[in-house]
């Protein structure tokens, strides 16, 4: 009798193993769901975006080189006017410029928080940065519209709407991302690097400049690229201050546009399946590919530059 | 086993929540943001008068409204445009209900003292022929054009009646009327166009060919920049959708809500204008 019981308990699934199975099924199905969602979004955007060139006979060369954007109308050859160059230039301009402006601030703040005064940095700067992250983008846009735009109009000329206004707004928006990731990068530099440097007689500044920052370069690059990818994808705040004119920007204060601003403006006014709508999906596809590129860059850099 | 029960409960809860719908009949109206306040106000009033019947109203733009009603995803599609004017819409399947009229007027920044422009001058401004207010007898201030997003109802109406096929100059675009008004009020030399209900003290309207942008002038078609607000149904309206459209056309809504929100009642129009732009006197009007 006793043997049977033991035999039975050995052959039967135990409670623990059952639970493990449930857990496995649950997490696998969650993963599958996520993958399916991502893949289907990508496929959806891709099929719609490519339709502009296959179904509507848009020229892919025009898309990247021409500057006339009016997908509802066609040129003499019957191809829709889908010159997206102004948006592409605008998107890259605000992204790169805001990253250039934000990087020194991010690095300086990170050095202060990690190397110079960790305690005060933690007490004051940390909450400030967290607060900046929490501010919704519409608020940034509104402040940009009512403060930054008139300021630029009065001091730099033009209408105030343009790449400069977009850059300033995005600078504040990507600063927290760039700063907190730079902080992580500096913290990841091993303590013995600093100790060795100081032991060799280097001053604090020499240690920071020649050792810590050098060792943290890949991490800081990652931080900057993350900031850029946020700037590239930001729609609402930029749309409010950039002017949304599909013109090649003449200077930093002439109205311009970004991929996202034209995308959000046009969506409600076009009909699914029409040329205008497909052209917007092409912009979306370009955005998706760009953010994919940013992600690949981040992976590359962090793999290459990992500390050994 | 306890855990299994927990998951089951959670699942059941989810089903319950998703299955939980408003009691009674409900329809959804989607589309034009210009028409949205009217439909919302009418919908609220309707639900108050008719217990158990609800009208869900969403914005999204005329394009969204027309494509959603075409695909049958909603019960009513709101639009500032005739369905025929929108590419990608098969207008034959849709039934038009013109529920209100709205005028569109040019607005300028208050610093511009000009009170009247001819239609040709107005066209010249938006096509880029004039670039400074001095050329039109105003101060030496560059003209800043602010457009609505292409395809938006207000812009289509404005371009149809003002531009007359002349291409508009590429310029700033904004996707909401509120934003346009805010920019025009704060930017020196700015000009744009908004629907009558959005005109307020922060901006200045302009008369065209000596005709002031007033409701009375729209009713007689003296002021030509106006459009109908449409509620489209797929096929003839049925059930609650029909009752609601009839309600919107009733005197209760037309006389009270339509007027209060700054639109013009359809039954007070002295003229009627068809898709091609032909104007004739409305039957039954003296």
TrEMBL record, chain A:
Q: Name one GO molecular function term.
A: phosphate transmembrane transporter activity
Main subcellular location:
membrane
Outline the extent of the ABC transmembrane type-1 domain.
Answer: 88-298
- Membrane-spanning intervals of the chain: 25-46, 88-112, 124-149, 161-186, 207-228, 279-298
Q: Name one GO cellular component term.
A: plasma membrane
Q: Which UniProt keywords apply?
A: Cell membrane, Membrane, Phosphate transport, Transmembrane, Transmembrane helix, Transport
This protein's membrane topology, according to the annotation, is: Multi-pass membrane protein
The biological processes this protein is annotated with in GO are:
phosphate ion transport
Where's it found, cell-wise?
Answer: Cell membrane
Q: Which Pfam families match?
A: BPD_transp_1 (PF00528)
Entries under Gene3D superfamilies matching the protein: MetI-like
Q: Which InterPro entries match?
A: MetI-like, MetI-like_sf, Phosphate_PstC, Phosphate_Transport_Permease
Q: What is the similarity comment for this entry?
A: Belongs to the binding-protein-dependent transport system permease family. CysTW subfamily.
What this chain does, per the record? Answer: Part of the binding-protein-dependent transport system for phosphate; probably responsible for the translocation of the substrate across the membrane.
Name the chain's protein. Phosphate transport system permease protein
From TrEMBL, chain B:
The cross-references to InterPro entries, in alphabetical order and at most eight, read: PBP_domain, Phos-bd, Phosphate_ABC_transporter
Instruction: Give the primary localization class.
Output: membrane
What is the protein's quaternary organization? Answer: The complex is composed of two ATP-binding proteins (PstB), two transmembrane proteins (PstC and PstA) and a solute-binding protein (PstS).
Q: PBP domain: which residues?
A: 25-251
Q: Source species, please?
A: Schleiferilactobacillus perolens DSM 12744
One GO MF annotation is: phosphate ion binding
| Role played | Part of the ABC transporter complex PstSACB involved in phosphate import. Involved in the system for phosphate transport across the cytoplasmic membrane.
From the Swiss-Prot or TrEMBL record, give the protein name.
Phosphate-binding protein
| Signal peptide residues on this chain, from the entry's feature table | 1-25
Name the keywords, alphabetized.
Cell membrane, Lipoprotein, Membrane, Palmitate, Phosphate transport, Signal, Transport
Report the family membership. Answer: Belongs to the PstS family.
- Specify the superkingdom: Bacteria
Q: For this UniProt entry, what's an example GO CC term?
A: plasma membrane
User: What does the record say about its membrane topology?
Assistant: Lipid-anchor
């Amino acid at each position: 009798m006793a043997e049977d019981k033991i035999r039975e308990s050995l052959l039967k699934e135990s409670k623990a193993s059952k639970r493990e199975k449930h857990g496995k099924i649950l997490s696998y199905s969650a993963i599958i769901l996520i993958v399916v969602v991502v893949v289907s979004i990508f496929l959806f955007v891709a099929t719609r975006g490519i339709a502009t060139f296959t179904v509507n006979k848009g020229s892919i060369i025009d898309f990247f080189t021409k500057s006339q954007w009016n997908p509802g109308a066609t040129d003499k050859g019957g191809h829709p006017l889908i010159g997206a160059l102004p948006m592409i230039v605008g998107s890259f301009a605000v992204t790169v410029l805001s990253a250039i402006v934000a990087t020194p601030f991010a690095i300086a703040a990170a050095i202060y928080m990690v190397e110079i005064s960790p305690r005060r940095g933690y007490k004051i700067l940390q909450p400030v940065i967290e607060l900046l992250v929490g501010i919704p983008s519409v608020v940034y846009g509104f402040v940009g519209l009512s403060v930054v735009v008139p300021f630029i109009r009065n001091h730099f000329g033009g209408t105030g709407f343009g790449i400069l206004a977009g850059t300033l707004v995005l600078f504040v928006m990507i600063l927290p991302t760039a700063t907190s990731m730079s902080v992580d990068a500096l913290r990841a530099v091993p303590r013995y690097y600093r100790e060795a440097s100081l032991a060799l007689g280097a001053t604090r500044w020499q240690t920071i400049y020649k050792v810590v920052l050098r060792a943290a370069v890949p991490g800081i690059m990652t931080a900057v690229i993350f900031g850029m990818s946020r700037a590239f994808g930001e729609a609402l705040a930029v749309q409010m201050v950039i002017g949304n004119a599909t013109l090649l920007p003449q200077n930093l204060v002439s109205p311009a546009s970004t991929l996202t601003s034209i995308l959000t403006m046009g969506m409600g006014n076009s009909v699914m399946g029409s040329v205008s709508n497909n052209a917007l999906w092409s912009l979306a596809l370009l955005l998706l590919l760009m953010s994919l590129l940013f992600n690949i860059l981040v992976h590359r850099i962090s793999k290459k530059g990992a500390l050994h | 086993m306890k855990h299994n029960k927990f998951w089951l409960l959670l699942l059941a809860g989810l089903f319950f929540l998703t299955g939980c719908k408003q009691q009674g009949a409900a329809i959804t109206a989607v589309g034009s943001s210009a028409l949205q306040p009217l439909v919302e106000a009418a919908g609220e009033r309707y639900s108050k008068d008719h217990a158990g019947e609800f009208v869900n109203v969403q914005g999204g733009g005329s394009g969204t409204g027309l494509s959603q009603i075409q695909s049958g995803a909603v019960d009513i599609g709101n639009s500032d445009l005739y369905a025929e004017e929108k590419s990608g819409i098969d207008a034959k399947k849709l039934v038009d209900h013109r529920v209100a009229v709205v005028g569109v007027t040019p607005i300028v920044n208050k610093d511009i003292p000009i009170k009247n422009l001819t239609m040709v001058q107005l066209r010249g401004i938006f096509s880029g022929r004039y670039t400074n207010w001095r050329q039109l007898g105003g101060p030496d201030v560059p003209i800043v054009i602010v457009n609505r997003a292409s395809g938006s109802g207000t812009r289509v109406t404005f371009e149809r009646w003002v531009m007359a096929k002349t291409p508009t100059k590429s310029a700033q675009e904004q996707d909401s009327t509120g934003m346009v008004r805010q920019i025009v009020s704060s930017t020196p030399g700015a000009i744009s166009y908004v629907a009558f209900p959005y005109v307020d003290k922060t901006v200045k309207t302009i008369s065209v060919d000596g005709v002031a942008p007033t409701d009375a002038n729209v009713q007689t078609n003296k002021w030509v920049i106006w459009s109908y607000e449409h509620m489209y149904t797929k096929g003839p309206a049925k059930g609650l959708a029909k009752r609601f459209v009839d309600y919107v056309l009733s005197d209760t809504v037309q006389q009270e809500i339509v007027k209060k929100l700054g639109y013009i009642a359809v039954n007070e129009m002295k003229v009627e204008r068809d898709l091609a732009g032909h104007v004739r006197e409305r039957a039954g009007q003296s």
